[in-house]
Automatic annotation (TrEMBL), chain B:
SUPFAM superfamilies: Multiheme cytochromes
The keyword Transmembrane helix is assigned to this record: yes
Gene3D superfamilies the UniProt entry points to: Cytochrome C3 (3.90.10.10)
Residue ranges the record marks as coiled coil: none
Superkingdom as given in the UniProt entry: Bacteria
Pfam family, one: Cytochrome_C7
Transmembrane portions of the chain: 12-30
Signal peptide start-end: none
InterPro entries assigned: Cyt_c7-like, Multihaem_cyt_sf
Keywords: Membrane, Transmembrane, Transmembrane helix
Name by which UniProt lists this protein: Cytochrome C
Occurrences of domain Cytochrome c7-like (ranges): 119-174
């Protein structure tokens, strides 16, 4: 029996109707029953029952004795049972989003975005939410250690010992004029940078090298060539009516994802009457690509040609741009006419001309964003120069590309770190101090950084563990986690935020800045020698000198400081300096561009793209179980990395992936190779294979070690650039198969329409276009009455970008356990909220929709009617409750749930052996034991908290008082929660909108979650 | 032997005794789960009768968190020392408290009232409604040694909720 092809499909197996799909559909749970097939004999059974009863009776008749230990002096602000909130700044990546840290009984248990922060505006990405778990990581160092360089073995030492040895080494270096280098990541803290400068000035050969594994250096270099100043502009996606990305992923990992996501989604509201258009030109399917209206797949080598062809359209073919008559421009662009580039890149003829016309029509309101590591290393800067030329031609300078308040979120320089490597090779570096980076892991293996470390006399790492770099160091002086630290941040010159400790340091770690102060003082030279006081004092003094005078606060500095700590973020009145007059675009920069086009590669090796995954970033939090279990938003695979291959290429190579097992292939780039399982990824260019970096760690800890392979090993370092893209690679089958834990592979939509979508043009004609969802059936029974509050939710599929911040927020808030790869392989992942990713259209080049799916709290809940013990019932406010202590584990509720949102504790996932990990649990939420069903509760503990707060004030709950964890963290505000009995609440308004529909409404479950269908700004849908 | 003659039949006697024992055993087994009367030995002989009864110190003076939070909490030792730096410093029990306080060790009280982990109870809401502490904790001001006087099981809570028109949705107590 052939079934109709589903319009939206979750995996290629579902699309093709493979036999194993049909077989899996029959099974409620992925694996056959775990019970043994032997039935015990009646005599044995009775013996067991009798013995069990006897033991139970003989056992606990006495309750255990429990002690209460009171405070000696209770802290004033902390009431046991009530949360205390601190304003701080996230330190997981240099974007420096504002956070509010929720602490209970003196320990942080949840991070929430800070609404007042001008960039993140209340959102917090998945990695930011997960960074809380890093504080309690049991594999953190407990104190300073001395490392044996030969074996990597670490032995505990004292701070005094470490300081003494380091002081000796530094004194030697100072005396002999040897180089002292401090290698860090991007330091967004101006005060820390000032301290670093003061420290390094002590040494005649002192230098600070800033290096980012996720590098935006090509942008800064191109800015220097084009405008004379090295900076990263502040990109304003909220001002762009047309966004063209060239391999960039602003919604995923580029520069400031939370801010970009918010800005991006602010222009995707069809009800406002206008919608932006997003064109993604990229080799792989990035998160931004899944949210684009139009996508073009190209090889990484062609990104530059395409940018130049667009410029050619604007300057040469139909001269309209300001620099059209310019000889240098004409010469540079002459070799890149659109037709030839389209032919080389495999685009339809006329595509680039049409796109150039669209860009021109949106001049001043468009943005061309090129990924700094998207093109091959030799073309990276040229690509940025081309993008700058386009933005300048389109008048985007000062509008969507703001150079007056540049971003300080990526200060790393590839040239600087590569020259450091050369210096190390020559034996010139005497002392190397490493903070916030892991170069032995993230630098291309061809550079041999670990080997070169042997040529440095003395090395200290400030890492929180003996990582891949620190094992070749002499000492590790572990820094605090950012939740234990003082710091400040300046993501751009108009915004300063503070980090304050939310918990006293758990272990004998010391702030990196305090360590520098101690060393600076012990050397007795330079400006630090005479200082006293801690890093906290230093920070305060800097703010007294730098920030306080600019603040025109009437109060004293101490009051100002308290206020700054309470608010967490401070904004400068003057938003940055004016653009220097000499800042006009310099056509000489175009000399970067090769005059002749490189011949189109044909046949031969495939083009490898190493991309930065949303879940792991550069691998810095590889030991974070929440991130390892978080499925990649596009492939939905967790606990592994893999080689993504386009479907046509996979067929040609004879590799496939189904039923969570994939063929293993060898990827060989010449200077390195390794084996990885294959993932057939729709949306890839057929010549491109993609591997995520950030995996394959060997010294992360018990969670992260040996998960996947290290993509950085395959990277290139050529011509002063680190290349992650366009690397020629050979992919060969090994004949082996390996399991890949994909969470999207085992549930099927049964051809029921779950997703509805339309185009913006159709929406403008008829706001309910595309909404073919059935309404509920007429019923014999009257509806349930909900007097008082009734909680409901609206999810805008147009706003959801699939970033999965909500998933980690839910995990942190509700004590959702991590189960590990083998359990996920059985389809038993525990996430209460999942993001379903649906493809539609051409399997080689599909369109994508992300749909968060959670318990729908159905009014006619199918789960409630079948529970034999009434562990799941409805309450008077419309919530479907799950009473854990009543549940006996029949799992009939999960069987009956059409949305498949219920999760069962097959094993005891929650007994945590490590003490520190127990501290992260939310005390307001029951920790579920074995045999108990759980599911989304609409954060009932937050509802209760909200009602309590309102009751204490004597007012009813106001709309927006209660936010579920997922809603709170969403950078794009896709989720809205509230009282649907209140006609004025935001969620009621959203429900009434014509775009709203219920999933599986034909089943008459009457869910309270309304989804708003997807609107794409393109001509027709799903062509 | 006449059939049905229970008094003389040995196996039937044995069955009868076994049945009685089973019933008694079962009843005592299930009854042993009640904590009424649990009055464990505390590290010092603190008497609520003296403090709350004779001296009429209000409950909330020491257990001040009861009106601010779900937990009533045992008071911080500084609260004891508020008076006992000068009051009755001759008593060995007071001296022991002072010793613990000086040496930075908390006094290890033995917990008497305990709900299971899956039960959410908020003192704050109930105090706000005006219920006296004695409603659930009994006549504490008459207790020399604190003991649990009500069984505090679900039936106890539900009956009071029903009588006072408080919510009886499951999620009221089982979050």
């Amino acid at each position: 029996m052939t079934e109709p092809t589903p319009k939206h499909w979750r995996s290629l197996a579902e699309l093709h109707g493979d036999p194993e799909v049909r077989e899996l559909r029959e099974r409620e749970f992925l694996t056959p029953s775990e019970e043994t097939t032997e039935i015990p004999s009646r005599r044995d059974f009775l013996k067991l029952v009798g013995a069990g009863a006897a033991f139970a009776a003989a056992g606990c008749a006495r309750r255990p004795v429990e002690k209460i230990l009171p405070y000696l002096k209770a802290p004033e602000e902390a009431i046991p049972g009530k949360a205390v909130w601190y304003a701080s700044t996230c330190g997981e990546c240099p974007a420096a989003c504002g956070v509010l840290v929720k602490t209970r009984e003196g320990r942080p248990i949840k991070l929430e975005g800070m609404k007042e922060h001008p960039l993140s505006r209340g959102g917090l990405c998945a990695r930011g939410q997960a960074s809380l778990l890093n504080l309690y990581d049991p594999d953190r160092l407990r104190g300073p250690v001395a490392v044996d360089r030969n074996t990597g073995a670490a032995n505990a030492t004292t701070w005094g010992g470490l300081d003494a040895r380091t002081a000796n080494a530094l004194r030697e270096a100072r005396g002999g004029g040897g180089r002292v280098v401090l290698l860090t990541g991007t330091v967004t803290s101006p005060t820390t940078r000032a301290l670093i400068d003061e420290f390094l000035k002590i040494f005649p050969g002192g230098a600070h090298v800033s290096y980012d594994a996720v590098s935006s250096d090509a942008i800064a270099k191109a800015q220097e060539l084009c405008y004379g100043e090295r900076l990263i502009p502040h990109y304003r996606l909220d001002r762009a009516d047309l966004l063209v990305t060239l391999g960039a992923d602003p919604l995923g990992t580029f520069l400031s994802p939370v801010e970009f996501a918010r800005d991006f989604s602010s222009r995707r509201k069809p009800e406002s009457g206008s919608m932006s258009k997003v064109v993604a030109i990229e080799p792989i399917l990035t998160l931004t690509g899944t949210n684009a209206d139009v996508r073009h797949r190209v090889r990484p080598e062609h990104l530059l040609c395409i940018a130049l062809a667009l410029a050619h359209e604007l300057h040469v073919r139909i001269p309209r741009a300001p620099l059209s008559g310019n000889a240098a421009v004409g010469a540079a662009l002459g070799g890149y006419p659109a037709e030839t580039v389209e032919r080389d890149a495999g685009l339809k003829p006329g595509t680039l001309a049409a796109l150039a016309d669209e860009l021109w029509a949106n001049r001043g309101k468009s943005l061309v964003l090129a990924g700094p590591q998207a093109a091959p290393a030799s073309q990276a800067v040229a690509l940025q120069v081309a993008a700058n030329l386009l933005n300048m031609a389109l008048g985007n300078e000062g509008a969507t590309v703001e150079m007056a308040t540049p971003s300080l979120q990526a200060q790393g320089s590839e040239e600087a770190v590569l020259s450091l490597v050369e210096g190390m090779r020559a034996g010139e570096v005497q002392v190397l101090l490493i903070q916030g980076v892991n170069p032995a892991y993230t630098l291309p293996a061809a550079l041999g950084f670990a080997e070169l470390m042997k040529r440095v006399r003395f090395i200290v790492s400030f890492s929180d563990r003996v990582d891949e770099t620190a094992r070749h160091a002499d000492f590790v002086a572990p820094d605090h986690h950012y939740l234990e630290s003082w710091n400040d941040h300046e993501p751009n010159r108009a915004v300063r935020s503070l980090t304050q400790p939310a918990i006293a340091p758990l272990y004998d770690t010391r702030a990196f800045q305090d360590t520098l102060l101690a060393w600076g003082r012990s050397l007795g030279a330079g400006s630090l020698a005479a200082t006293t006081g801690s890093w906290h004092d230093y920070l305060k003094e800097r703010w007294r000198g730098d920030v306080y005078p600019k603040s025109d606060a009437a109060a004293s500095f101490d009051l100002f400081w308290e206020g700054a700590l309470r608010e967490g973020v401070w904004q400068a009145k003057d938003r940055g300096r004016a653009r220097p007059a000499s800042g006009a675009f310099r056509p000489e920069a175009l000399s970067e561009i090769p005059a002749t086009r490189a011949p189109a590669p044909s046949g031969g090796p495939l083009s490898l793209v190493l991309y930065v995954p949303v879940t792991q970033y550069d691998g810095r939090s590889g030991n974070n179980a929440w991130l390892q279990e978080l499925p990649d938003p596009v492939s939905k695979i967790c606990w592994d990395n893999y080689v993504s291959i386009a479907p046509s290429r996979a067929k040609e190579l004879g590799v496939s992936e189904y039923e969570m097992k994939a063929d293993v292939v060898t990827v060989d780039v010449g200077h390195a190779k390794f084996d990885l399982p294959v993932h057939v990824q729709p949306g890839l260019h057929p010549d491109v294979v993609a591997i995520a970096v950030g995996f394959g760690r060997t010294a992360a800890g018990r969670v992260g070690n040996q998960v996947g392979q290290n993509g950085y090993a395959l990277a290139q370092a050529t011509g002063g650039r680190i290349g992650l893209s366009g690397i020629p690679a050979r992919v060969t089958r090994t004949g082996r198969r390996a399991p890949l834990a994909c969470v999207q592979g085992h549930q099927y939509t049964e051809n029921r329409p779950i997703i509805y979508e339309t185009t913006f043009a159709s929406f403008l004609k008829d706001p309910s276009s595309g909404n073919d969802a059935p309404t509920s059936e007429p019923s014999m029974w009257s509806r349930h009455q909900y007097l008082g509050y009734r909680w409901g939710m609206a999810i805008d599929l147009n706003a959801c970008i699939g970033c999965a911040a909500c998933m980690v927020a839910c995990q942190a808030e509700n004590n959702v356990p991590v189960v590990g790869k083998s359990i996920v392989l059985r389809g038993r992942e525990m996430a209460w909220l999942r993001i379903d990713r649906y493809y539609s259209g051409n399997p080689e080049d599909p369109e994508t929709v992300h749909q968060p799916m959670l318990c729908q709290h159905c009014e006619n809940a199918p789960c409630e009617t079948v529970c034999p013990v009434l562990a799941t019932v409805h309450n008077s406010e419309g919530l479907n409750l799950q009473i854990y202590n009543r549940c006996v584990g029949t799992r009939y509720c999960s069987n009956n749930c059409p949305y498949k949102v219920r999760r069962f504790n097959w094993f005891d996932y929650s007994s945590v052996r490590e003490k520190s990990l127990r501290l992260v649990l939310n005390p307001d939420v029951t920790v579920r034991s074995k045999g108990v069903m759980e599911k989304c509760t609409f954060c009932i503990q937050r509802i209760r908290d909200g009602k309590e707060r309102a009751k204490a004030l004597g007012v009813p709950v106001q709309d927006g008082d209660i936010e579920t964890a997922c809603m709170q963290s969403c950078p794009t505000q896709a989720i809205t929660f509230g009282d649907i009995n209140n006609p004025k609440s935001r969620v009621s308004e959203l429900m009434k909108r014509p775009r709203g529909y219920h999933v599986l409404a034909e089943l008459n479950t009457l869910p309270v979650v309304t989804y708003e269908l997807k609107v794409r700004n393109r001509e027709e849908v799903g062509s | 032997m006449v059939s049905g003659d229970l008094s003389t039949s040995k196996p039937k006697q044995a069955i009868g005794i076994a049945l009685v024992l089973l019933v008694l055993g079962g009843w005592s087994f299930f009854d042993s789960f009640s904590n009424v009367g649990y009055a464990p030995k505390q590290p010092i002989p603190f008497s609520h009768k003296l403090h709350a009864g004779t001296n009429k110190i209000p409950c909330l003076y020491c257990h001040s968190n009861a009106e601010r939070s779900r937990h009533a909490t045992v008071p911080a030792m500084a609260v004891c020392m508020n008076c006992h730096t000068v009051v009755r410093t001759d008593r060995p029990a007071i001296q022991m408290v002072a010793q613990y306080y000086q040496s930075g060790k908390p006094l290890p009280w033995v917990r008497v009232h305990r709900e299971p982990d899956y039960v959410y109870f908020s003192h704050q809401w109930h105090i706000a409604r005006g219920f006296a502490c004695q409603t659930c904790h009994g006549q504490v001001q008459n207790m020399d040694v604190i003991q649990q006087s009500k069984d505090l099981k679900m039936g106890f809570c539900i009956s009071c909720h029903r009588a006072n028109k408080a919510p009886t949705d499951c999620n009221t107590c089982h979050i």
